Amino acid sequence: MSNAIEQAAERLWQAHAGATPCDPVRDLIGPSDIDAAYAVQQRNTERWLAQGRRLVGRKIGLTSRAVQKQLGVDQPDFGMLFADMCVADGETVDIARILQPKVEAEIALVIERPLQHEKHTVADIINATAYALPALEIVGSRVAGWDIRLADTIADNASSGLFVLGSRPVRLADFDITGCGMLMERRGDQVSTGAGAACLGNPLHAAVWLADVMARVGMPLQPGDVVMTGALGPMVAAAAGDVFEAQIEGLGRVGAAFLSN
Fold it and tell me: What pTM was estimated for this model as a whole?
């Protein structure tokens, strides 16, 4: 492992451990070196697994065409989901657990069959999905001021924080995954709207991309894995005392509250 990758991984590791945002890591690995950025992410993933954290799925990021354009990329990215990142619907969250938190509404898929092909189809994803859940992702950045480029966010586990899963599973056949509307409120005020189609045109397209990539890197999606498919609308900054609730048409609602200071 190169010294630059090790240094970048350590910088992000210490930011997480000390709950203090750090400088970007692109000065060490370059602003757009995807391979180096994933090597940093993998280094810290291995450290977390060695400490006993349990891998339970993946998150897909950069699924908005506008955000891709902003960062100069033409594909999503992914990060790891660990069991201790999962929050139950309505559970109160200590905001100190996440650096610089923001919230976005998503559709989560729970996998029931392995996805091991070199190239997957939408039909493969449908056949392998047990059910969908409404979800919130509480994204966070270890990089100070969210001063990120592509390499920074990938290295930082795709700017992951926590994820909140709804509690009523819905089969894919029972709702319109592209046409479903989304409304997210913060303390009763509308703060974000969108639809399934905002996620790469179809959240299943994002899942196909992820399944292909994970098979290619030797970590194929397995039964029980959670896939956070990507934002359905703009993400919104969170503060202590905030209460968020998202309603996704056909999927239902999911909410999270942040402890007051």
Answer: 0.96
